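Exam review. A common question shows you a sequence with its structure tokens and asks you to describe the fold in words. Practice with the pair below. Do the first one on your own.
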Amino acid sequence: MDYQKQELSNAIIKIIEIRGIDILKNPNVFCSLLDDIVPKLQRERKIIRRIILGNSGLCNELISLYYCSESDLSMNISKFVYNIKSEYGVSDEWINFFISVFADAFGWCLDNTNGIQLFENEITNNDPWLAFKQKYQIGTIVDATVIGLTRFGVVVEIIHGVDGLIHISKLSKKDKNEISDEYSIGDIIKAKIDSIDFEKKRVSLKELI
């Protein structure tokens, strides 16, 4: 794919020379120009189109990266890649191709991708909900730790920093009138995630027998 990557990079350089970097503020026009210059590279243009048409904010980030100082470039690229992964679920192969194309077009010197992984680790450590979002979904079975008992049910910790509720109607113990008689703080409960509300940061689960 090296030949195709170079062709796309050259096409982007040409577009920027003629229309300026702000052409990325209009991603539809940018993609149409790319179609005209390299019509044969359908698969490769699809990668570019999929990413930059998904959100205009990414195009603004690309423009910022174009003007970014060399000292800040690695971390800012890492943030950009992380945003793509988080929001659009694009494969690593496509992301690497996309970054390589624009790296050549913008004249970046990228010698490794360690910064990307380090940035992802930093983000997920600081925000456990991002780590949760990457690894868990509705239907996932977990071993959750009881951290609270209420009249509504049992509060459990799924991972550090992310709690969930097993409603009384979804507990497996037959005698649910006195939850404290059946469950204790520190108990490990095998449960299935029933629903997730990332906006309100709420998780509901059902205990498995």
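Now try the second one, then compare your answer with the model answer below.
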Amino acid sequence: MSNKSISHKNERRIEEIMSKHIVTLNADSSAFDAAIKMSNKNISSLVLIDSGKIVGILTERDLIKQICAKDLLSSKAPVTSIMSSPIITINKDLLVKEAAITMIKNRMRHIAVENNAHEIIGMVSSTDLTKFLIEGLEDSSDNLSLLRSLYWQEEPIEESDI
């Protein structure tokens, strides 16, 4: 691969890899409703809406840690009691590497992407970043380092696994 194409890949904006399909759920829903919607849509996060305004984000991890691990009845648990709020956003023009660093520093697996008018236009997950980084593993050892950092909470990656 030429240096020119490596440079272009390192300068990609988060807007280029984000998911433009934002799945929402009313904030008055239960954790059970959220789990069903995530399962049916095969997604790992939902944006929560109240009176047309975004009030938070709910992830699979929220459900596991705050409902399942506490043996709570999901149909009785309001999503507002387990959501992350306020929602953290990044600008669509942020470089992918900078977005990954922001997610790592904030220990996040999902982050909302906003346009210059501060409207949420997409979502980026650690899976989106992983796919992007895997494409460029041959391009840069920096990408491999970022990939390892994205999964700091997961099982350790052994050198022999790579």
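Model answer, second protein: Helices lie at 3-10, 31-41, 60-68, 96-105, 126-135, 141-150. Confidence is low (pLDDT under 50) at residues 1-7, 153-162. Full marks require stating both points clearly.
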